[in-house]
Amino acid sequence: MKKIKLVIALLFSVISMVSIAQEKLSNSHKSEADQYWETKPICYPPASGVTLPDKYNQKDFDRYIESKTEVNIYDELFRRTLREWGIRFWTLFPNDQRRFEWLVTSRLYEPAYFANVREGARAKAEKKYVVQLDTLAKNGWKILYCQYLKEFLSSNEVSEQRKEILFRQELSFGFFNKKWRNSKQEKFDLQQHVLQSVDFAKRYGAEGPVVNMLGVLYRDRNDFGLDDQDIDKYLALLKATEFSAFHQQARGIESVRKLYKIPLKLQTKSVDGKLVDLEKYKGKLVLVDFWSLGCTVCIEKMPEIKQVFDKYNSKGFEVISACISGYINEDKKKIEQIHQKTGANWPLAILDFRPGGLGRKIFDTYGWQGVPQLLLLDEEGKLLSSGSEFRTKGSLEKLVKQHLDKN
């Protein structure tokens, strides 16, 4: 028996030695570019990297933010490492076509360039977009990127499909990264973004992805540092384009802005069959929360809404939960479970998001491109606040308290 074990051990030892020898031989035949390419950073943090608390338990929120901060630190460092690795690869091997593959990947994982990574990571976890940035590094990348992009677009080795992918990422991931600003005075370049959007729509005949970004830009206008005058310019830019989808988006935004003067109308039935009619809420301060099952941000906000409701309901604050779904029969049970687990004791309505459904009609009317959509309505049903004004923790209570204290 001992002899058999010894033979097996020797066999594994020989196999191991042969394997190492083969690897060395293989590496000796690899070019420097091949060997460097194998060092490409790939350790992107998995979604499971965050230890999620019970999202319905407000007490765990701070711990959740801390764990998200740690993941955001890892995330930012990974993105920077990937970029610096690629810049070096491009410099060392300027004729290697794989540099274009890195360029597309790098645009997908765009660093924020925080001056202090921990402070920036926490700001990201709390969705606060004014934070000190490493302007020198950020501007240095802009210069390099212009050079890289020129080579990328002029290369016959790059397919049109890959060029389209890069432009899509430019409009989406690059777009969201422009929320990061050193100060509240910094402005998002609306004109450049609309011109980029028009160029993409012309080049690829794809208005849909662009319109989504245009809608998000209005919803998150505060995050981008935009005021009413900026939005006026934005609408004028959209209307001046040749695309009907852009014009429709402009009309949707105008419809939302009209809600500041004209009461929102909403009449439907709750999941328990009771009538939900905003007309019946006149004289109350009302939050209408449009959300969906797939929106984790929406669900994470619910404990805070519950907390504010419990504190101010007796003073005239009400909530209506409006979940949109294209599969009501399949989703109904899950939607009700989330509502119940939150401890919500306000009406829940499920709005049909299929073509012709009430949910789809509402979103088409106001040009909304996604959820969450939170609308705070005054006692007459007119819009007080919406969108990213509720993004940070405590912002909802602050707005509710300010309004109730005035009245």
UniProtKB/TrEMBL annotation:
It holds the Pfam family Redoxin. One of its GO terms (molecular function) is oxidoreductase activity. Residues 256-407 form the Thioredoxin domain. Coiled coil: none annotated. Keywords: Signal. Residues 1-21 form the signal peptide. Gene3D superfamilies: Glutaredoxin. InterPro entries: Redoxin, Thioredoxin-like_sf, Thioredoxin_domain, Thioredoxin_ResA/DsbE_sf. CDD domains: TlpA_like_family. This is Redoxin domain protein. It comes from Pedobacter heparinus (strain ATCC 13125 / DSM 2366 / CIP 104194 / JCM 7457 / NBRC 12017 / NCIMB 9290 / NRRL B-14731 / HIM 762-3).
